[in-house]
């Protein structure tokens, strides 16, 4: 029997359908471009960190968080610790630690956290009595911080039962050793403890250089003030060079540009908001590790954070 061959013809796609397909393809390309643009903008966007606690007239912790200006608040300071000393928190006029009434801040801390703000305890500062004499001393301090401010248990938690998000190292005096051991001991708790630091802009930092080399820190807000060689000046050379060194020389998720919130907040280094927005931020944002701006401090923040926030 002779075989029969059937020839099948595919019907042509109507012109209107082809036009629709082309239009749909263009829409997909546009949507992809839009998504990539949004992601690029987000990667450049930064946050603001601020210090709170050293001026009784700066308003409450809860009010600070309710401004929605800040992603991180550092409660300053645990100013006495280490070397066998009884640790002591100093919150200026906000409360009296010996009487135990600082525990009332627990609800305010929880309120901040419910708004997405990470709240750290800053240890050290420019005054006080602190230091570490040995690796054992560092581990003892880490145990104290864990049990009294973080996820551990203690009957004498100075800020109540709120669990802070982490510890900020603002080490400006005392010893230069064992801060790396303190960082390791805090990081090895089986529960996330954010580690942040506020070194001064000359690189490497005299006190925190070794600790920062551990690669354990999440955020580093470098103090670009009170240091003439690396703070803001008209040609930006010193600041730009120091910023590049910080953002390329340490293993850290994000680096923040630390600034005074007003001319009165520091001896030198204040950058007017319009200058920061037009000249400085476009330079520092080029770094892949750019995280945002840190301000010292809430007491001197008379509208500065609000004016720079859209551009940070």
From TrEMBL:
Output the InterPro entries linked to this UniProt entry. Cts1-like, GH, Glyco_hydro18_cat, Glyco_hydro_18_chit_AS, Glycosyl_Hydrlase18_Chitinase
Q: Where is the signal peptide?
A: 1-45
EC?
3.2.1.14
What keyword terms does UniProt attach to this protein? Answer: Carbohydrate metabolism, Chitin degradation, Disulfide bond, Glycosidase, Hydrolase, Polysaccharide degradation, Signal
Query: What GO molecular function annotations does the UniProt record carry, in alphabetical order?
Result: endochitinase activity
Question: Do you know which Pfam families this protein is assigned to?
Answer: Glyco_hydro_18
Catalysed reactions listed for this entry: Random endo-hydrolysis of N-acetyl-beta-D-glucosaminide (1->4)-beta-linkages in chitin and chitodextrins
Q: Which domain of life is it from?
A: Eukaryota
Q: Does the keyword Metal-binding apply?
A: no
Alphabetical GO CC annotations of the entry are: extracellular region
- Transmembrane region positions? none
GO BP term, example:
chitin catabolic process
Residue ranges annotated for the GH18 domain, each copy included: 46-312
Please indicate if the UniProt record lists Hydrolase as a keyword.
Answer: yes
Per the record, the similarity remark reads: Belongs to the glycosyl hydrolase 18 family.
- Official protein name in the record: chitinase
């Amino acid at each position: 029997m002779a075989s029969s061959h059937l020839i099948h013809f595919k019907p042509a796609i109507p012109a209107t359908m082809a036009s629709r397909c082309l239009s749909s393809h263009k829409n997909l390309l546009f949507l992809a471009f839009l998504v990539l643009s949004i992601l690029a903008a987000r990667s450049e966007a930064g946050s603001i960190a601020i210090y709170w606690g050293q001026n009784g007239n700066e308003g409450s912790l809860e009010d600070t968080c309710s401004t929605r200006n800040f992603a991180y608040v550092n409660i300053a300071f645990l100013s006495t610790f280490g070397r066998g000393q009884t640790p002591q928190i100093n919150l200026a006029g906000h409360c009296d630690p010996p009487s135990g009434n600082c525990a009332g801040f627990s609800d305010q801390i929880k309120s901040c956290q419910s708004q997405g703000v990470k709240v750290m305890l800053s240890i050290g500062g420019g005054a006080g009595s602190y230091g570490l004499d040995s690796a054992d001393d560092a581990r003892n301090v880490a145990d104290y911080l864990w049990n009294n401010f973080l996820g551990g248990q203690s009957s004498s938690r100075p800020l109540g039962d709120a669990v802070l998000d982490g510890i900020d190292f603002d080490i400006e005096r005392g010893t230069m050793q064992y801060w790396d051991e303190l960082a390791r001991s805090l990081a090895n708790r089986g529960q996330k403890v954010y580690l942040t630091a506020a070194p001064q802009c000359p690189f490497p930092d005299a006190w925190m250089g070794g600790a920062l080399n551990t690669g354990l820190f999440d955020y580093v807000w470098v103090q670009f003030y009170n240091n003439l060689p690396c703070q803001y000046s008209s040609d930006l050379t010193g600041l730009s060079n120091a910023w590049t060194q910080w953002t390329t020389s340490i293993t850290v998720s994000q680096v923040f540009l630390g600034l005074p919130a007003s001319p009165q907040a520091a001896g030198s280094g204040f950058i007017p908001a319009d200058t920061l927005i037009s000249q400085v931020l476009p330079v520092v944002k080029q770094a892949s590790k750019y995280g945002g701006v840190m301000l010292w401090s809430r007491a001197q923040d008379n509208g500065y954070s609000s004016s720079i926030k859209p551009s940070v």
